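Tip: read the tokens left to right.
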């Protein structure tokens, strides 16, 4: 692991939305503004959850498989230079809370989704859920 990778906060979110990836991405700039996340924090949104994306990390792969079983259909990865994983997870939590208040998450508010998803980050040698 390089020094740059050591100083990079990472967090992973899994969630359900009936909106398309295009719709969620179009909403992302205003979500970023409303959540007031730092400009240097990167967000990568992907439709579908592929556990093989995490084949390098067996615990994260298992968590992604669990997210699929809970009917989540999106994954979002946040990276934040010079931040801890926990701080990055908190910022991602702000993003997710803002998304949940948008019209794109109307299926969540109507109770159609079985899970609201979750955010995980690595603390020492194991993953923790953001509460």
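Filled-in amino acids:
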């Amino acid at each position: 692991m390089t020094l740059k990778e050591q100083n990079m906060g990472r967090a992973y979110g899994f969630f359900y939305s009936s909106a398309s990836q295009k719709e969620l991405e179009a909403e992302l700039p205003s979500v970023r503004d409303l959540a007031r996340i730092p400009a240097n924090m990167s967000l990568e949104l992907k439709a579908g959850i592929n556990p093989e994306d995490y084949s390098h990390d067996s615990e994260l792969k298992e968590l992604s498989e669990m997210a699929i079983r809970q009917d989540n259909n999106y994954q979002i990865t946040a990276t934040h230079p010079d931040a801890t994983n926990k701080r990055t997870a908190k910022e991602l939590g702000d993003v997710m809370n803002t998304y949940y208040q948008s019209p794109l998450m109307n299926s969540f508010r109507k109770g159609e989704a079985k899970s609201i998803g979750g955010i995980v980050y690595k603390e020492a040698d194991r993953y923790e859920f953001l509460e």
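The chain is about 40% helix and 25% strand. The mean pLDDT is 88.
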